[in-house]
Amino acid sequence: MDTRRLSEIVSALQGEDAFRAPLFPADWARLAAYLQRREFDAGTLLMRRGDEADTAYWIEAGLLQVFIVGGPPGSHRIARLPAGALVGEPALFGRGPRMAHVEALTPVVAWALHRSRLDALQADDPALALAVLRGAGAVMAARMRANLEHGIPLC
Fold this sequence. Notes:
Radius of gyration: 15 Å
CATH topology: Jelly Rolls
Largest sheet: 4 strands, antiparallel
């Protein structure tokens, strides 16, 4: 699988919650063996709040919205995530329910990393797995801070 385009898009994304792990093209090429390329039509829910979380996605193309149903006024849409973003990153750290819905606003191309494939990566290439986890953890921390600052519930 060729992840060159994905690595360029992820590297170019700016923002507090951008995935900034120090991965070079060769690292992405090794990581590709553990990823699954997926395509989603506009309107597809990639994640449903309450479902068990076991997969994170890097977005190669398209636009997602993260939202909840209910909650305080104005909290329904939490974020829009463009190409280059990582979504569903809490799934890489442990079991638990999804905290929000994630919908494709446009057709989306995404690269999935299932927790079991992360475990295999950790066994095969611990340094790369650690870099991915640190990068995903930084994304998760940035989003938690932003949500708390805006009064958005975390669950």
